[in-house]
């Protein structure tokens, strides 16, 4: 599907001050990804590219857990740079190389030991082509460690509005990787947030920056109908759910 990168960047920029409080699932997925990566002692943290660093939740965890020598930091939104730098642990701050902008069009650093990304790759327009590009800049037996949201993510909202990303299944992702990578491990998980009302769901989507899929203007009657239908179809005693489905993947570049 066509993705408007300017719209995506605008939505994440608008969520800059609210993201950390609202991105509970994203934080959990990032933590789980690093835990999974910790099971592979062959991963080197010498030259690391992090794609989609956002406000630096994953960046901080990475630097707390590992001695990173050089860290290339990327995000579509350059405004996040100051936020990320401010939360890096002083005792373990790597040599930072900023690389902000659209990662699909930027020149990539070479001889990377690790490419790391959490909850970002679903926003890329050409994921198959990008995986191949990453293989070209990773050193032999370098690792690609990432999480990606998959089918079922925000399903309640999508069922009612028809708005959603074209999420790939774990099997499809494995198929995209097989030419250039060996998939060492792949793990899927589902999480649900429960919010008081459907209006809170819309606020949650706004405050985590994920509203950049498509422009949608709410009339008063459409909003009222959305709230009633969401509560009627999905409501529980705990509130109304927001579903996230994620896949964590550890992939090693194939040798020559």
What does this structure look like?
The structure is a single chain. By secondary structure, this protein is of the alpha/beta class. The chain has one domain (5-154, 165-192, 243-253): Vaccinia Virus protein VP39 (Rossmann fold). It is built from ten helices and seven strands. The chain has helices at residues 5-14, 19-22, 24-37, 57-65, 81-87, 127-137, 155-161, 170-177, 198-207, 220-234, and strands spanning 47-51, 70-74, 95-98, 112-118, 138-149, 181-195, 240-253. Strands 3-2-1-4-5-7-6 form a seven-stranded mixed β-sheet, sandwiched between helices. Strand 2, helix 5 (81-87) and strand 3 (95-98) form a beta-alpha-beta unit. Helix 3 runs parallel beside helix 4 and helix 7 (155-161) packs across helix 10. The longest helix is centred in the last third of the chain and has 15 residues, at 220-234. The mean pLDDT is 94.
Please provide a brief summary of the model.
The chain is of the alpha/beta class. It is built from 10 helices and 7 strands.
- SS-based class: alpha/beta
Mean pLDDT score = 94
pLDDT below 50 for ≥5 consecutive residues: which ranges?
none
The global form is globular
Keywords:
globular; 256 residues; alpha/beta; 37% helix; 7-stranded mixed β-sheet; Rossmann fold; 10 helices
Show the helix and strand layout.
Layout: H1 5-14, H2 19-22, H3 24-37, E1 47-51, H4 57-65, E2 70-74, H5 81-87, E3 95-98, E4 112-118, H6 127-137, E5 138-149, H7 155-161, H8 170-177, E6 181-195, H9 198-207, H10 220-234, E7 240-253
Parallel strand pairs: 1-2, 1-4, 2-3, 4-5
Antiparallel strand pairs: 5-7, 6-7
Helix pairs in contact: 3-4, 7-10
